[in-house]
């Protein structure tokens, strides 16, 4: 649903209000649950968008825009809305055979609410014939509430399955003294803030146009990270699952402040000996010594005597506020007229992309599993922003009064790409941690052809592109180490490395009706070919993205028809036919064959296959490996 109201109180002022609501519900196809489809969770989204825009023309050369907007989006994924619904069944029914689920249910229960409040202000001033100034600000405030649970049995002491979630909002975790964290729940509320401002001067001369600009970006994650009282990060014990106390050189626990100087073993006051006077010169902050939360009453000798123990200053985690990110980004563009009907242009710019919020907030409770590589990758609130430096040069040439041709050559360096590293806790458990260390680059050439003649239009675009980087996805380094594979030490094709893309659109459009046909051809993107081998060591040095999927093509058709009913009331009929020829493009392929719906099946595989309801071919013939089949959409737009 969409509604829009526009007002023109007087000639220089325009205002409009808009409201849009979208509701979606779906159950994605799972080949594993092909024979147990009712065990799949259902995804849902509901979004409400409100906006108010004001445009005021100060005079003939000066105007400004103000836009206020709010969007609330609720995403959920669960089988039943109430997590304690009695229709959840025991995990003992979650059996499988021949690669298919024969029972059981998805036990995930996620609800994520995101609210974005946005204020934009833009100001434009045509100073004179040579200079046009644009400036503005953009303020964005996020609020993310995440409630992600795995449904468990409330007790295993009986034979009755009672669905249960470990939630801070429920009575069983109401006490402030309880540790409400659980490996089966992740609850948090985060409120990051973004701000940007820009200034641009467009200079127009007889044969040349120059754009000079400067942009300032600011991002405050407004969340904490795992640190210690020494001001260091402490991701070796991020959730204080491990407790360490100070001991002296003999391994005995320190129970008094005076003993700390002995443990320190440093002549802090430089008097030639280590004594009680050194305690006031201890290099750690007084906060650590003076605050009782760093003490615990413990009968550590198990003799009935309760002593005060000092938590280890570097191994004990305290929350520390993440620092904001900011950057100044210059922009430069030049267009030079070559002759009467050709324009040469060049651009250079720095672009600042905020870290994705999932990479900062994941595993916010900072709980680590008890086995290596079993934890979810932990978010890092101290991530740097991704930085891209772009260069582009191009030529636009008018061929005749109907046709034009444009050629662009571009290159991009991408720094601080999101990556992962492996961290080892104090008790030698390895887990993944988001960080910045990867690099990528993109280079290519783009050709554009355009023809316009009355209602007829033709647009054609061809791109030749190469993308390279040292990691295909953020989790690559973590996954390879967990699989005992060597790190990638050279640039490899990225997952979006598509050598050739070609599309052309033919349109016939009038004020009353119109129709367009668009054809697409795309060469295949990379995948990791894994040859069949009896030696498991063969995969250790296998580089990711070492082969390419098959090419794909499709044709779409869309059109409209305007109907005027009376006076200011009219409507528009629209239609869209996606994949008009019902082409089956292979978007996902088998790693051993490079094709969809195929696999290498040995005689041994066939002998060992056991099933009374399906075949071995069914286990790998996954229809979701292909593109969406022909889809027809029809719409009606009312204009009052």
Automatic annotation (TrEMBL):
Membrane topology: Multi-pass membrane protein
Species annotation: marine metagenome
Annotated protein name in UniProt: TonB-dependent receptor-like beta-barrel domain-containing protein
Keyword NAD: no
Any Pfam family hit: TonB_dep_Rec_b-barrel
Domain TonB-dependent receptor-like beta-barrel: start-end pairs: 27-580
InterPro entries membership: Beta-barrel_TonB, Beta-barrel_TonB_sf, TonB-dep_rcpt-like
Keywords: Cell outer membrane, Membrane, Receptor, Signal, TonB box, Transmembrane, Transport
